[in-house]
Design goal:
With about 575 residues, this protein is an alpha+beta fold. The protein has three domains: about 110 residues, Immunoglobulin-like, CATH 2.60.40; about 190 residues, no CATH class; about 120 residues, Glutaredoxin (3-Layer(aba) Sandwich). It contains 19 helices and 15 strands. The strands form four sheets. The chain has a five-stranded mixed beta sheet with strand order 11-13-12-14-15, with helices on both faces. Strands 5-6-3-9 form a four-stranded antiparallel beta sheet, with no helix packed on it. Strands 1-2-7 form a three-stranded antiparallel beta sheet. Strand 1 and strand 2 form a beta hairpin. It is elongated, with a radius of gyration of 31 Å.
Length: about 575
């Protein structure tokens, strides 16, 4: 049961199994449309507005017109200049959408509110990049809009929820094997037998408040240090993320008892002498002991405390950092207040379970290190590391200990076996090219009957206007009809057309004699977007037939997704005019 308590702390940090997703790819029959008037310009289909800008956050609102949707994974938010600190955008969970070519994605219909944490109070320009599609099958290229954000006076970026979490973290640090057994000794030194009543409460409070204030000073200094270096912005760099992750890994090893973190002997010995000369039982003496105790942090507390300081330094918020560590100190001192008022009987007794709490904190620090590395490592490597962590916890819980265990330990062993199974799934998924820890195995790609092998050499892929003009000129001079396919890697409907339409036997037969050109607009640069304007297109997919004279047959132009039968009819109609 004690191991189960440890596992419950880990469940919040470890991924869970994915649930089934809905199949929601647009119907191919909706795409047999041959003019751009059926689609809205991108900024009419998706309307972006700035709802609110405060010193703490920026609130944006997207309104997708009915029949259009936005991709969750295509959002990007950048500050100009780049050294302005922005937090990670808070996007709500979108609607699940599955495609056999792109896998599982999330999309938004209707109104979407996005909150962007703000860690810098200067005025700047916010560049917002987004991408969406029409339900009828048209995919717009990525669009970037720029919004002017006013500067404001620096204020703290903290919430009561964060402060409560730091208080609970401090309370949890008390229940470690280095701290909890010291409470009776500490209460004896501070209280000197004056337990209970207002006097005992005042003495303990005189000890706790200076200790918490010292922690607050550390937090404020680290917040100020982070603000000067703008670590929030620099945390996008591997040169910062990797050392931070290594620090957290070292702190985790300290929690596992590999080594101890403590002050140098010269400093700690002087503090010990000060504490020894301090007389307990007085408010002044309790205050001095509180200050000294905050500096003589025990090995069990120093690792997570150092992790908290690194976290605060990245926030760049001096006031918020001070308040957070002040609440951490209050949490650590709360059990002493309980002892001072005569409630020592309510505290749990020391025992082996304290080791599990300490180990759980170490596992959470390792999870945080992996989370930092996931921003610079390939998804497969991150999945391998997550599997390694899950396997280690599973083995610790006795997943492979094939001996008799009492009922409580059997439940822990069962949960350990589940974690070990999840680790194997992560490793299998990583070597299979998967990257999602919530769905490590992924779903196998379904190959339809209409997806046949095609000689890709018959298609010429180009990506610049000059190459397109040259191809059109060559086809016109040789009196060869030409089919132009507008394509992009981020266009799901383009994949559908490529595999299910252009590979169909009827379509292949009717395209004999055509020069097949595929214009790749994946980069969506200025030249390519200008070319879209030239042909009055909003984005891919689009299929254009050019006759032997080099003139497009606009009445058979296809914009959006289309099925093989309808496109074969379009091709036959185009052939009648050659």
């Amino acid at each position: 049961m004690r191991r189960l308590l440890c596992l419950l702390l880990l469940v919040l940090a470890l991924p869970a199994s994915a649930v089934g997703l809905l199949e929601s790819r647009p119907s191919a029959t909706l795409g047999s449309i041959n003019n751009s008037a059926d689609f809205l310009p991108v900024r009419e289909a998706f309307q972006l507005s700035l709802v609110d800008s405060t010193p703490q956050s920026i609130k944006l609102r997207f309104v997708a017109t009915e029949g259009y949707y936005l991709y969750r994974h295509r959002f990007q938010f950048r500050a100009e200049p780049a050294d302005v600190g922005l937090g990670v955008a808070q996007l709500p969970k979108g609607e699940q959408k599955h495609d056999e070519y792109f896998g599982d994605v999330e999309v938004y219909h209707g109104i979407l509110d996005v909150e962007l944490p703000r860690t810098d109070q200067r005025a700047f320009t916010l560049a917002v990049t987004y991408q969406g599609c029409a339900d009828k099958g048209l995919c717009y290229p990525p669009e970037t809009e720029r919004l002017s954000i006013d500067g404001s006076g620096a204020q703290a970026t903290w919430s009561w929820r964060e402060l409560a979490l730091f208080f609970l973290a401090g309370l949890g640090l008390t229940f470690t094997p280095c701290v909890l057994p010291m409470l009776p000794i500490l209460s004896g030194v501070v209280l000197r037998g004056q337990v209970g009543g207002l006097r005992g409460f005042n003495l303990s409070l005189a000890y706790v408040l200076p200790m918490a204030i010292c922690f607050a000073l550390l937090g404020a200094l680290m917040g100020m240090f982070g603000a000067q270096l703008n670590l929030q912005a620099r945390l996008q760099s591997a040169w910062v993320l990797v050392p931070f992750a290594m620090f957290f890994a070292l702190f985790a090893l300290a929690m596992f008892g590999v080594f101890e973190l403590k002050l140098p002997h010269a400093i700690s010995s002087r503090l010990d002498r000060i504490a020894g000369r301090t007389e307990g039982g007085s408010l002044w003496g309790a205050a001095v002991l509180g200050v000294v105790s905050s500096l003589l942090v025990s090995p069990c507390v120093s690792a997570p405390l150092a992790g908290a300081l690194l976290y605060i330094s990245a926030s760049g918020d001096a006031l918020g950092g001070g308040l957070k560590l002040f609440m951490l100190g209050l949490g650590m001192g709360a059990p002493l207040l309980l002892v001072a008022t005569g409630g020592a009987a309510w505290l749990p007794k020391s025992g082996p379970w304290l080791i599990y709490v300490k180990n759980a904190i170490g596992v959470l620090l390792l999870g945080l290190a992996i989370g930092l590395l996931s921003r610079v490592l390939p998804g497969q490597i991150t999945l391998l590391l997550i599997g390694l962590l899950a396997a280690g916890v599973g083995l610790f819980m006795g997943a492979l200990e094939l001996v008799y265990k009492p009922p409580r330990k059997r439940l822990g062993q069962l949960l350990g076996m589940f974690l070990l199974f999840y680790a194997l799934a992560c490793w299998y998924g990583a070597f299979s090219g998967q990257t999602d820890p919530l769905n490590p195995i992924g779903q196998p790609r379904i190959v339809t009957n209409s997806e046949q092998a095609q000689d890709n050499s018959t298609w010429q892929t180009i990506s610049t206007p000059a190459e397109l003009d040259r191809a059109l000129a060559e086809a016109r001079s040789s009196r060869t009809p030409l089919l132009l396919d507008w394509y992009a890697d981020w266009c799901i409907s383009c994949k559908v057309i490529e595999h299910e339409v252009l590979n169909d036997a009827r379509v292949v037969e009717r395209l004999k004699g055509y020069r097949l050109i595929r214009f790749d607009i994946t980069a969506s640069n200025a030249e390519q977007r200008a070319l879209l304007d030239r042909y009055r297109l909003f984005g891919p997919p689009a299929l254009m037939f050019f006759g032997k004279d080099g003139v497009e047959h606009t009445d058979v132009r296809v914009i959006g997704e289309i099925n093989a039968q309808d496109f074969a009819e379009r091709a036959a109609k185009a052939n009648d005019r050659i």
